[in-house]
Amino acid sequence: MRTLRIPRRSPADPGAPALTIHAPAKLNLTLDVLGKRPDGFHELESLMVTVGWYDTLTFAPAERFELSVTGAAGVPCDERNLVARAATALAHAAGREPAAAVTLHKRIPHEAGLGGGSSDAAAALLGLNELWDCGLSREELRDLGATIGSDVPFFLCGSPAGVVRGRGERVEPVDPGPPRWAALAKPPIGLSTAAVFAAWGGRESARATEQALQVYGTAGGALCAATANDLDGPATELEPALAAEQAAFAAAGLVRSCLSGSGTSRFALCRSAAAARSAAAALRRLRPGPVAAVPLAV
Ligand code: ATP
User: pTM (2 decimals)?
Assistant: First the structure.
């Protein structure tokens, strides 16, 4: 398993060290919005990859469910947290009590289009499946994950890259491809996913995913040129301050940059790790908010 790493095995007894999982963020290298479905969700096609920016979760035996969240203000630690929802769903599926002590250390910015909450939920399904010895298969966890959040199945697909279709529940794993790096920035502005999709308003898709897939396995700049997100324009119309983000990327030498998901994070693929680090340093000088140079498909 490459999307989520488990450095230590599950404890069989309460004195054993907690099971630790590092849950990566994701980027949408492409995001095609193909239409609105009768159920209110949007039909999507997206080439997604994990990136080396992680939340860390630990799981230990306990008499009841306890979740503590550190590292981020504004992330709930009650049943609204996707980790708690994953625990409840798994316990229900396995016919047991959701008893565990879970810690979640947030590093991935939230309301960012980086899938942090979904990745945490996927990590919780994997970690608690092991801690509780539920024995659910990866496919069963994926089906359960789809009921928790649209991006959860991607994080359980067993590959750090995949094409995601439907509202996120259909995932086709893709070979990780050559090593790649991106500069990634989250402005101190949030946008509601629902508002961004409403602003999209049915416009025609650029259908970038197919083209990106054709060049995904190749080294060089072709993939950078193929990155595109149908929600980029609508998000900027909704929040004109996002135009300054795009301008900051251009000023940092990153001519082709792209929104991830429904925003508000923006990224650009870079030629090398060194190029990503130097672009990230420039972005830090040019604009406020977290910035990282991240490896792709970790
Ligand atoms: P996506 O890329 O899936 O749209 P996102 O970047 O918009 O994700 P998340 O990090 O998934 O955002 O969190 C969005 C909201 O969900 C947060 O404002 C928070 O209130 C809630 N939330 C629930 N569980 C979590 C979690 N484990 N981590 C972060 N936010 C969570």
Answer: 0.94
